[in-house]
Structures are given as structure tokens and as C-alpha cells.
Design a protein that fits this description.
single chain; about 400 residues; alpha+beta; 60s Ribosomal Protein L30, Chain: A; 2 domains; two-stranded antiparallel sheet; about 50% helix; about 10% strand; globular
């Protein structure tokens, strides 16, 4: 089984994933029908709108928001580029998008709550030749429908394969076993993807690189991940490889693992298996918390995955992996997602640093018990408890957070 089928959420993204998904949906709808774009209408789930509101869109000189992403996607988006659909945008495209918005040609509506947080982006684009429609559900690049003038079209072949949810894992031990049995091509791809993220970190710090040679690896990981996250959330052009379709989670999943592997002098094969562990454990957690969640998955899912990977780099066994996941949960449980924006970089840095620190404590034998809040009888039960916290307990809180974000004045 290919890594693409196992983890479709690992792919390159320029800028925040939610504006990217909105642009992708609008691009598919516009390409379906062709012609000159006249009107764009999007109906999105609340979490997608929340995360598109404050994150910068690359190439727009500080522009942000679902409205701009939709307009650009319809006018110049390339569906074959997936979450980089706006990579070929020109200044003329940006001017055209701003004119379309000023003329009232873009509508954004929030869909009714469907209970458990899920992605749903429905795009309708009216052009000089008719109406094109596209629907994305559950995953940022999972296009489940494309229509032109009421006629269903084949799913665009150039789009990435959607997840088949083909792997099952009832325990962390199952996940660790799976991470040790990928193909050599999969391992090589994971190492190459991590290198992309480390280059983004180096680029973000290039103007004022800190002296981290003698620093604790958790501090180095924190500063690297924070800088790269800040840059992408402000609309930076450096590509980031995602985890769970999130660039911020991609940074947490890869940066602490890469930093610690270099400090330990680990060979490429060891690094590759650790990276596989990080992504797979993160996905195992997301299956409980959700792809888009009321809780911040950068400090929950991705940090737990990276902590598990760091335990493996440090020579810890499956029991130590479980302890590390518990320690991360005890450190950050309940940290809310309050929308995508430059301040997310602080949580990304927290997730990266906690991954290494909790792994070190776990390997040293630090253990939590069921007396400790959400900690369960097993790490799997701890993860289930996080899922219960996210859904349905925090869903009403999430709705209030979304309204706070959406009611802010434009800046």
C-alpha cells in the first residue's frame, strides 16, 4: 500500500490549508464550465471559514479571508496543484479578484452545523457559459462532485487520490508496527518532505538566525517551527509539507524529529521510520479529535505523533511511546483552536518543544496515572478521552470562538 493511500494529508501547501481548499473548490467549479467568471458563491462549514479568516494568502500583500480565496480560485486557480492552486497567480489576477469582490460578485455563506466538525465546501461559479459546481467533503482535497450546467462530470483525474481509509489500527502498537513496514520509496519521500520543512524554517530565520548550537534541542525545534509557521500564516511563499492536510501540523510532525535526529547522529533509515511514526500516530489521534477540531491539533495530534517519533529515536519501546503521548496530553489538553492566523505559530512552537521534552521524560521513566485528569488506563483511552472532549463537549465553545473570529472588524 502506498503512502499516498495511507496518508493523503501529506502534501505540499503554500499558505494556510483552508484558504487553499476554498481556492481549490472554486477552481474546480470554474474549470468545469469554462468561460468568463461573473459570480462566485461558496457555502462552507464554520471551521473552514474560521480558519480562512485570519491567515494570509500568499502573493496578495497581506490579503486574507474566504472571499479573496474564492475569487482567486475561480479566476486563476489550477486544480492540478491541489493546495497550491494559486501558485501561478499574477498581480493582474489579484486586481481582477479585488474588482469582482468590490462589485459584489462573491458570496460566502456558513453552512448549518452538522454536529461533529467536518469539512464541507460547496462552490458555485457562474460564468459567461453557464454554472459550474464543486463539492469538497471531509478532507481538504477530497472533491466528491464536479458539475457543469447541471451535468455531473468525472472527478478531475489530475487531483490527488482521496483517502481510502485503508488502514486500521486499534492500538498504538499497531501504528508502530505499520510505521516499521513501509516501502523504501515511502521512507525516502518522508525524508525529502521533512527536508522541505526544514528549509522553510531556515528561510524564515535567515534574516536573524539565532545561535542554537548549544541550545537544548527542544528550544531549537521550538524556534525553527515557530518561525516557519509565522511566515506561512502571514502569507509567505515557502511551501510546507502538511500532516493531516495542515501545514502547521506538518511542521510539528517533522521539525522536532529532524532536529533530534541530527543531534543524535541518526542515519537516514532511522529518521525515516521516526517520521513515519510521527505522521501515523498523529493520524491515529486525529481520527478521534477530527481533521478540523475545536482543539488545536498542532499541540494534540501532531505533538503526540512527534513525541512518539522522538521516543523511537531515543531508543524507547512501545511503553515509552504510550507514556510520551500521555505526557503531551497532560501538558496541553483542551488547548483551543481559535482560527488560523499568525499567532498559531506560538502553538506550533509549543507543540514542537513539548514533543521532545515529553519524549525525554518518557524514556527516563516518567509516568502518569488515571488520577491525572484526562489520562486513561492506556494511551489509547487517553486519546479517546481527547476525542470526547473535542466532540461533543467543546463544540458549543467552538461555535462561540467562531463567532468571535468572524465578528472582528476587517484589518
Amino acid at each position: 500500500m502506498s503512502l499516498q493511500k495511507l496518508l493523503p494529508g501529506i502534501q505540499r501547501s503554500t499558505g494556510c490549508s483552508e484558504p487553499g481548499a476554498i481556492a481549490l473548490a472554486a477552481a474546480v467549479a470554474a474549470r468545469a464550465v469554462g468561460g468568463v467568471v461573473q459570480h462566485v458563491r461558496l457555502v462552507c462549514d464554520s471551521n473552514t471559514i474560521k480558519n480562512a479568516t485570519g491567515a494570509g494568502i500568499p502573493g496578495t500583500s497581506g490579503g486574507s479571508g474566504a472571499t479573496l480565496a474564492a475569487a482567486l480560485g475561480a479566476l486563476c486557480g489550477d486544480p492540478s496543484r491541489s493546495l497550491q492552486a494559486l501558485a501561478a497567480m499574477t498581480p493582474q489576477d489579484l486586481s481582477a479578484a479585488q474588482e469582482l469582490i468590490a462589485a459584489g460578485g462573491v458570496e460566502i455563506m456558513q453552512s448549518a452545523s452538522a454536529g461533529r466538525a467536518r469539512i464541507r465546501i460547496e462552490a458555485q461559479v457562474i460564468t459567461s457559459t453557464g454554472q459550474g459546481c464543486a463539492l469538497i467533503e471531509d478532507e481538504h482535497t477530497r472533491v466528491v462532485q464536479a458539475r457543469a450546467n447541471g451535468v455531473d462530470l468525472p472527478r478531475p483525474r489530475e487531483l490527488p487520490n482521496e483517502s481510502e481509509r485503508a488502514w486500521q489500527a486499534g492500538s498504538l502498537s499497531d501504528v508502530l508496527q505499520l510505521a516499521s513496514n513501509l516501502t523504501s520509496d515511502d521512507y525516502a519521500a518522508l525524508v525529502a518532505d521533512a527536508a522541505v520543512n526544514m528549509r522553510a524554517c531556515a528561510g524564515a530565520l535567515s534574516s536573524a538566525p539565532p545561535n542554537l548550537a548549544a541550545a537544548d534541542p527542544s528550544i531549537e525545534a521550538e524556534q525553527f517551527a515557530t518561525a516557519a509557521s509565522r511566515d506561512r500564516m502571514e502569507g509567505g511563499l515557502a511551501p510546507i509539507v502538511t500532516s493531516g492536510f495542515s501545514g502547521n501540523q506538518g511542521l510539528v510532525a517533522t521539525v522536532p524529529v529532524s532536529v533530534l535526529a541530527r543531534r543524535l547522529g541518526a542515519d537516514e533509515g532511522t529518521l525515516a521510520r521516526a517520521l513515519a511514526t510521527s505522521h501515523l500516530v498523529g493520524e491515529f489521534v486525529r481520527r478521534h479529535t477530527g481533521v478540523l477540531s475545536p482543539v488545536c491539533n498542532a499541540v494534540h495530534a501532531a505533538s503526540m505523533g512527534a513525541a512518539a517519533a522522538c521516543v523511537r529515536l531515543l531508543g524507547g519501546d512501545a511503553n515509552a511511546v504510550g507514556r510520551a503521548c500521555d505526557l503531551v496530553a497532560a501538558s496541553v489538553a483542551g488547548t483551543l483552536c481559535d482560527g488560523a492566523k499568525p499567532g498559531c505559530s506560538l502553538k506550533v512552537g509549543l507543540g514542537a518543544s513539548r514533543a521532545i521534552r515529553c519524549a525525554e521524560m518518557a524514556v527516563a521513566g516518567v509516568t502518569l496515572t488515571v488520577r491525572d485528569g484526562l489520562i486513561g488506563e492506556s494511551p489509547e483511552e487517553t486519546i479517546q478521552n481527547l476525542g470526547k472532549l473535542a466532540h461533543p463537549i467543546l463544540e458549543s465553545v467552538d461555535r462561540e470562538v467562531t463567532q468571535i473570529v468572524l465578528n472582528k472588524p476587517s484589518v
